[in-house]
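In the current project phase, our protein records have gained a structure token line. A sample record follows, to show the layout:
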Amino acid sequence: MSICAKEVNEYLCAIKQGDKAKFKQLFELISRRILGVARYYLVDKSYCEDVVSEVFQKVYLYIDSYDESKDGYNWICRIAENTAYDFNFKSSQNSDNTDPVPALPESELLEDAEKRVDLFRAIDKLDPESRELINLHYFLGDSYSEIGKKFHISKVAVKKKIDKILSKLKIYIENKL
């Protein structure tokens, strides 16, 4: 294992134990390498930075699923590879669309960013199971049925759980808890 991989493992373990400051250090250490992974796997290279951003969001969201006995750098690279494949798939689905997406004014972008930060803070306050349900459904796109199979519950139970979690998230966001 390289020195970089050892550092990545140390940072991931620290982040998993709650040291959020290590996340910035992790980003600084490997963001360029993850950008290279994105460039390698993406068909449309204009999405490289978007992939890197999404990879680090997924690392933050799924840190509880990181296995300390495994190579953390490879774990992150696999996330990058899968994210790039997702972007390739999405861009191939949208290739028929000839209308460009209109650019948002800067104020809307800032507002959007603030809302995302509030959302991620609220998600961070949820218990691990609730976070996983939200991540699986909204960030990975798993259906209620797929999630139900993973948790050995019915899809109706999954929907009810997610609806309750969304109510909690709404309260967290509205009250800026």
